Amino acid sequence: xxxxxxxxxxxxxxxxxxxxxxxxxxxxxxxxxxxxxxxxxxxxxxxxxxxxxxxxxxxxxxxxxxxxxxxxxxxxxxxxxxxxxxxxxxxxxxxxxxxxxxxxxxxxxxxxxxx
Length: 115
Description:
Layout: H1 16-29, H2 35-45, H3 53-65, H4 74-78, H5 86-94, H6 97-114
Helix pairs in contact: 1-2, 3-5
């Protein structure tokens, strides 16, 4: 007779970006905001396939408007028609703050140098 050993993960480190993606999918799909509740969706298709454009953009706008370090770049994040479309909005909603700031500063610097 074979014995079955069950193991249980009691602790796992999840990046801040993954936590934001999990919360975003949970809100958009009504699933529990747990790793087991949304991980299959996240791994299978990504955030944007489970959120409407409106829900994703609302989450991204709320994040940018609510953060004093990101708010000065709201025009860069939302007023341009970025070719990445939903992927861009998903990135704005979930990327680490430092990445968003660095990217927006780079875009702003290019705007200034073109003027």
